[in-house]
Amino acid sequence: MLAKLLVKLANSRLGVPAKSLMRRLQETYYNAEVLSRPVTKIAPLSVNVSASAKSRVNILIPEINFARFYGGYMAKFHLARKLVEAGHSVRVITVDQCVRDIDSWKRDIVEYEGIEDIFDKIEVECCFDRNNRIEVSPNDVIIATTWWSAYIANALVKEIGSQEFIYLVQEYEPFTFPMGSYYALANESYAFPHRAFYSTELLQEYFQNNNVGWLHNTVEDRSDHYEYFENAIIDYPERTEIKKRASRERKLLFYARPEPHAARNMFETGFLALSKAIEDGVFDSGNWSFHGIGSSHGDIPLPKGKKLEMLGKFGLSEYKSTLLEYDLGLALMYTPHPSLLPLELACAGMPIVTNTCMNKTVDKLRALSINMHVAAPSVEGVANKLAAAVKYEPDLSSRYIGSKVNWARNWEDALDHRRMSKLNEWITSIRSH
Q: What is the pTM assigned to this prediction?
């Protein structure tokens, strides 16, 4: 009744001025804020170019925020560490809003093995305020780590008289947007002259297969301008077997991210497939419970009186121990990148349902671990693989074999001698031009 009255009021003459005012407020906000965001995001840094300045390798990152310090950020900071160990002076430059708090950062980063003292070894500049003018050398090298920092890097190399920057590519970032302005902006970032350091061979293969950008959409052979690495995943080296838990309860962990910015993680497909599997009786035996990770969203009802209990996000050590409590994983991503969570769930010894996408095929994912149950990216496809994974779950010996994932499980292997030699060659080459 109340809803009907509100609709009637909104459509009456009394409601017209209110709707007109709301429209003007929305237009004012859009004109003042939304239209300025792309300009603000890719605005160049303010710099003083000085021949007397020391030469640095500058890594452009969005922010330093340990609430969002996951695989992508660990790659950036381990790369900074390895460059310091190779003898380079490294400066990290944040280009988005970021509260500078070195003391807090030092406390938070001790949880991350290998980079506990990184803030004692690098410089940090916060440059969201583009009036913050920083000193650069003509011999500086720039590393971009996101599509918008690639715009900033491209402008910066021109300021210092260089020709190329290094681009740490951890996703084909247009896939994080619907088709539109930001998709086009992100795609254009690969058109700038650069050397690419791709996160995973599958991602590099996608760029090659689709002739993406300056490196691949050319008749000139630039194969010496790109290389790939594997983001190190968590490991359980102490494990010698998979043991069935004493409790009769079985637990499923779903990488559940309903937020629009995480659309590539296919929350709707995963949720509907899980619901279908429950309705079809896949989980009727075993006293299964269902948990979601990766979002602060509230719990969500499932069929047959079940619920998806949303656990939120975890710190690294808690995350690592939590994975061992589960018997089955569900983690989807509709991009060519394999995603790190499916690999880590497999490494924790559970069957994991994930999906194909473009050059990310069943054979390529199964070659990484037999714990991977690889579905077509559809509700029915995922539901069918959930049924198969439930049947596989009691096979403890196969789960143990599958936990030996064919992937880098520490950062010394991820950023090994071959890859760091390539990066050092690039740095030398960029400085010589």
A: 0.90
